[in-house]
Amino acid sequence: MSRIAYVNGRYVPHADAAVHVEDRGYQFADGVYEVVLVYNGRMVDEIPHLDRLDRSLGELRIPSPMSRPALRSVMRELLRRNRIHTGLIYMQVTRGVARRDHPFPKNAQPSLVMTAKRIALPTGAAVENGVRVISIPDIRWERCDIKTVALLPNVLGKQQAKEAGAYEAWQVDRDGYVTEGTSTNAWIVTKDGELVTRNANQAILNGITRLTLLKLAERENLRLVERGFTIEEAKRAREAFISSATSFVTPVTQIDDAVIGNGKAGSVGLGLRRAYLDYAEGEGRT
């Protein structure tokens, strides 16, 4: 079955999905996006994702393209047409089509594009062995808390990681502290057993999976601290892992050339991964 996309009110074959050449998302990266996990046929954290979409639109002063109930209806219809059991739904809203000029156009209508695709979950062995990350300078703008489509620094960082044979790149600010990965949030477990992740401010995207893991960590009575940490502290950590809607909780077993812990996934990361999958099967589903 061919994939189906949603473009500005129409369900169309994915191969034919297109927007106008003067859409401001294409011209200026003047738009935002969200990615929602679909796990065993149901969306996970749908409402928090839509809340963050509304926040991002508000920060860029882009009107919502439709009401919340209508948007949720389109999401479900797209999943039905694509027969997604485990996968992702991607939605993007731009300021719309207008003559190319930097100021906001007066009468442009927001553009909404939505796609869905299947994903394969990693095997148990892949999770146990973990992944490698490299460290790179954070060269992004100062509003990383907005989930915009302006992802060129992230793209360059992810490509640098790929060329280095790594899964992800952790971005480091001018003060030497890790902000986040190019598409994930970063976590460590210290030698003293503290679970550490950077506090959410304008320097990072406050991941929806990150927020869920904060709740789950409290339920597990973990010693949670939201603060910055350096690459050197991370290399000395007992455990490290990344989180996102697509990676869930993925253990990090190597940072640059330093092996983390015993080089295998740690108990805290694996425990949070299990807790997250249980959440995705239960209270997180809509």
From TrEMBL:
Question: GO biological process annotations for this chain's record?
Answer: amino acid biosynthetic process; branched-chain amino acid biosynthetic process
**A Pfam cross-reference name:** Aminotran_4
- What is any one of the record's Gene Ontology cellular component terms? cytosol
* Domain of life per record: Bacteria
**First-level EC class:** transferase
What are the recorded GO MF terms, alphabetically?
branched-chain-amino-acid transaminase activity
Pathway in which the depicted protein is active: Amino-acid biosynthesis; L-valine biosynthesis; L-valine from pyruvate: step 4/4; Amino-acid biosynthesis; L-leucine biosynthesis; L-leucine from 3-methyl-2-oxobutanoate: step 4/4; Amino-acid biosynthesis; L-isoleucine biosynthesis; L-isoleucine from 2-oxobutanoate: step 4/4
Looking up InterPro entries in the UniProt record yields: Aminotrans_IV, Aminotransferase-like, BCAT-like_C, BCAT-like_N, Class-IV_PLP-Dep_Aminotrnsfr
Q: EC annotation?
A: 2.6.1.42
UniProt key word Amino-acid biosynthesis: yes
Keywords assigned by UniProt, alphabetized: Amino-acid biosynthesis, Branched-chain amino acid biosynthesis, Pyridoxal phosphate
Q: Which cofactor does it need?
A: pyridoxal 5'-phosphate
Q: Which PANTHER family match?
A: AMINO-ACID AMINOTRANSFERASE, AMINODEOXYCHORISMATE LYASE
Query: What exactly does this protein do?
Result: Acts on leucine, isoleucine and valine.
Under what name is this protein listed?
Probable branched-chain-amino-acid aminotransferase
**What organism is this sequence from?**
Thalassobaculum fulvum
